[in-house]
Amino acid sequence: MVNDEVVKTPKQKVMETDVVTVNGEEVIYQKYHYFLLNKPKGVLSATEDRSQKTVISLLKPEDQYQGISPVGRLDKDTTGLLLLTNDGQLNHELLAPAKHVDKVYRAKIAGVANDETVKAFEKGLTLGDGTKLKPAVLKILKQDVASDSSEIEIRIQEGKYHQIKRMFAAQGMKVVELDRISMGNLTLPADLKRGEYIKLSLDEVESIK
Ligand code: URA
């Protein structure tokens, strides 16, 4: 029904001010959709790929709206928080270098990160190819000399290609596992399993904006 009148023709046009109901339930037009996914390993942060599974395939068919794409990329073997939206403006703004949206990751490292590593990250690293990075905050969660391994949390502002892997490589270490736990003021809910996603509420969307 449109404004309490039964509509029998598919040609009926509606405007945003019209009230549309189906079986008594109001149908609300929503232009943009926002999903927060806990990305598992093994899927590509892309909208389509000829041979490999993409993050879009993790959405239910009814949530695969036209134009939905991931906000930035996580590597195929990286897990954790990935925002998906068809709001191109928000997607663009969250990635704009000038906006400095912080991203926090937890990682398992082959190598022993120490205070020197923390200081080097804090100063702003220079990568192997000469790229100069902004300061990053590194917290050491565990250090094990016997197994030559560490567990860390890192907060970065940029999102350069393979950035965290390259940062540790510049220090002679290797990232073994990488998981993003937050982006801006969005945090991965503790009960959201890998491969699962939630729709963001309008409040949450407003808070990112
Ligand atoms: N840094 C990386 O090296 N990989 C990611 O997926 C994200 C940040």
Folded structure, characterized:
The protein has 209 residues and is α+β, with helices and mostly antiparallel strands. Helix content is 15%, strand content 28%. It is built from four helices and eleven strands. It has helices at 88-95, 115-123, 163-169, 202-208; strands at residues 21-22, 25-26, 34-39, 69-70, 79-85, 103-110, 137-144, 149-156, 174-183, 186-187, 197-199. A hairpin with a 2-residue loop joins strand 1 and strand 2. The longest helix has 9 residues, at 115-123.
Summary of the model, kept short:
The protein has helices spanning 88-95, 115-123, 163-169, 202-208; strands at residues 21-22, 25-26, 34-39, 69-70, 79-85, 103-110, 137-144, 149-156, 174-183, 186-187, 197-199. The protein has 209 residues and is α+β, with helices and mostly antiparallel strands.
